[in-house]
Amino acid sequence: PDVFIDCHLMITNAEETWSQYVDAGVDLIIAHIEAIDDPASLISSIQETGCQAGLVLNPDTPINSILPYLSDLDLVLVMSVVPGKGGQSFMPEVEGKVREFRSAIDQQIRNGGKETKLMIDGGIKHHNSAMVSEWGIDIAVVGSGLINDKASIAENLAEINSALGL
Fold first, then answer.
1. pLDDT for the residue 88
2. What's the predicted TM-score (pTM) here?
3. How many domains is the chain built from?
4. 75: which strand partners?
5. Low-confidence residues of the chain, pLDDT below 70?
């Protein structure tokens, strides 16, 4: 099967280790803006290999830390929890950041630029999946909303799909 593999590097040394992921055959590398000294160089280096590049924004980080690089990015990931531990509660206060990114990406596309994808990760479950979709998300990462002790994976996925009208 044709499988697309992205790696969300939740590490402090992405600038030193990213090439290991490219060598392993991943398709997309996503690194935290807060842990990078030279984002432009990292993005360029990753993309020169043919791999896609993305940046992650933590909930407390201003959107302006990523906006200067948006036109070069394949993906922006907005964290809706503080990274580091699974099963945390969704932080609805990231809505403004998601909508700002959506607006900037849409403007970029209208101007003939790259179709940067917008992803959200953290606390996504059936009860908020339709809401984040309405915010303009292209991709939602679902962890504990899918894999938990409340229902089977199939039942949880069916509930999420139902909430999305799928």
1. 78
2. 0.93
3. 1
4. 54, 117
5. none
User: What are the residues whose beta carbons fall under 8 Å from the beta carbon of 5, sequence distance 6 or more?
Assistant: 25, 26, 27, 28
Asked if the structure places residue 1 within a domain, the reply is no
What's the CA gap between 142 and 104, in Å, rounded? 25
Instruction: For residue 114, give both structure tokens.
Output: 């790259």
Contacts of 27 by beta carbon, 8 Å cutoff, 6+ apart: 4, 5, 6, 51, 52
Would residue 78 count as lying in a domain? Answer: yes
134 burial level (CB within 10 Å; 0-12, 13-18, 19+)? exposed
Here the tokens at position 69 are 């690089």
Instruction: Determine the angle formed by the axes of helices 95-110 and 126-135, rounding to 10 degrees.
Output: 40
* Per-residue model confidence as pLDDT tens digits over 44-76: 999 999 999 999 999 999 999 999 999 999 999
Q: Which domain holds residue 136?
A: 6-163
